[in-house]
Amino acid sequence: MAFAAVKADGSVVIWGDAEYGGNFSAVAALLTEGVVQICGAFMAFAAVKADGTVAPFLTEGVVQVCGAAKAFAAGDARYGGNSSAVAPLLTEGVVHISGTDEAFAAIKADGSVVTWGDARYGGNSSAVAPLLTEGVHSSESELQGLIGMVKEKCEELSRHQFGNFVVQHLFEHQASCRPDLLKPLLCKMSELAMHRTASHVVQSALYHCEEEGQKDIVESLLRATYPSPAIEQVAMGRYGSYVAEQLATLPSSWVQSVDLKQRLKSSLVELCAAENGFGRRVAEKFGLVDCVPLQQPKAQAPDI
């Protein structure tokens, strides 16, 4: 893991595992001043400077950066981190960058679009290149229209291997949309928490929603009944356990008031006995492991 902090003087402090972006020695000189925003991805960081440059992706005229799942425009080349093939097109006039799992698309001020990264994830736009030479814009009205479409299919997109990133992005950056995004998810919250991609959406909602939304999520998980998985099953699940761990980071005062910790404590033996170890990890997050009763040693058969 790695962290990056922007100081009041515009300088940046980086620390953590170098493999995950914690080593910025190659661009340290560029991060001593003028940094206005830091964005993090799976194995990389991107820093936006006040003069419109981006480090470590060194182009001019960039005014906004959005992340992909595994890299920004710097980092592992397999995930869109290498833009050298289109570098001449990215030296000026870029007004917006969006990312998928392993590719990026940049909209320029003249309305043209530049793409790079893995072709399977949208990095190769040659098939529609003639349509992308001009006239592509991202207006507020178009944005609101897209948000409306996402709201209508929020659950479906949350379960989609790529669509879930769109929902996560809206939870993070569109505060006014969060209640409408959350509403259709609440009735199936425990199922989503156990899903490979939708669990990330649940975590994003827990992190970005206001306290009222967080309470709605917790209460929905606690109310789940068969055939939906109960909170204890969520805590022992491969993906659900990460959601359950995040619940432990919520304000302790109201987590106690909804009996979440007590509910998990009542199933503590089962949580800690699960062979996959996920349940025990959740119990540790809630500080419950010390409550596990010691198992009595089995009596040995008498010698004959």
Please provide a brief summary of the model.
The protein has 304 residues and is α+β, with helices and mostly antiparallel strands. The protein is built from 13 helices and eight strands.
What features would you describe in this structure?
- With 304 residues, this protein is α+β, with helices and mostly antiparallel strands.
- The protein folds into two domains: 2-138, no CATH class; 151-291, Leucine-rich Repeat Variant, CATH 1.25.10.
- Helix content is 35%, strand content 13%.
- The chain is built from 13 helices and eight strands.
- It has a three-stranded antiparallel beta sheet, with no helix packed on it. Strands 6-7-8 form a three-stranded antiparallel beta sheet, with no helix packed on it. It has a two-stranded antiparallel sheet with strand order 1-2.
- Strand 3 and strand 4 form a beta hairpin.
- Helix 6 (198-208) runs parallel beside helix 9 (240-247) and helix 9 packs parallel to helix 13 (278-285).
- One of its GO terms (biological process) is post-transcriptional regulation of gene expression.
- This is PUM-HD domain-containing protein.
- Pumilio repeats lie at residues 184-219.
- One of its GO terms (cellular component) is cytoplasm.
- InterPro entries: ARM-like, ARM-type_fold, Pumilio_RNA-bd_rpt, RCC1/BLIP-II.
